Amino acid sequence: MVLAGKLSTELGIKTPTDRFFKLFSSELHEMQNICERVHQTKLHQGDDWQHIDTVKHWTYVIDGEVHTCHESVEEVDEQNKKLRYKLFGGDIDKHYKVFKLIIELIDKSDGSGALKWTIEYEKINDDIHPPNSWMDYLNTLTRDLDAHLVKDTRVAL
Q: Measuring CA to CA, which residue among 156, 155, 142, 157 is closest to residue 17?
């Protein structure tokens, strides 16, 4: 009986990796204005979106259903463009003891970029499925963000 696992996916992006990293590290509150699958983000605890001790409340749609959870930042590695978030409360706690999202922005040698999502999780019991629908959600979210940021970057030029 395996309760813990890890899922990863790497997606090519057109937006410069620095811009993507900035969105996730300091502009996370803009997510609800960019992606239709993110219904609402608000501060639950704390007064600064970027601070590690801040807890955010998320309302989002996966597989056509509205879900909620809380999120806090565990790690911001600016040099390696890597972020680690802990998700808890709401619908997460119904299925998982541990649920972490790791985002890595990767500059490729050919000048292109990629975003790597990793989900680390521990299920509350063996009847719970791995969070494959979360990976689908993150893939769609990445495509939506990339399209918006590319358009936004072109307008800024």
A: 142
Q: pTM of the prediction?
A: 0.88
The domain total for the chain is 1
What is the structure's pLDDT at 155? 43
Domain containing 143: what range? 4-156
Q: Is 20 exposed, middle or buried (0-12, 13-18, 19+ CB in 10 A)?
A: buried
Query: Which residues make Cβ contacts (< 8 Å) with residue 120, sequence separation at least 6?
Result: 4, 5, 6, 98, 99, 100, 102
Q: Can you give the CATH number for the domain in which 126 is found?
A: 3.30.530.20
b vs e for 94-132, b when ≥16 Cβ sit within 10 Å of the residue's Cβ?
A: eebeebbbbbbbbeeeeeebbbebbbbbebeeeeeeebe
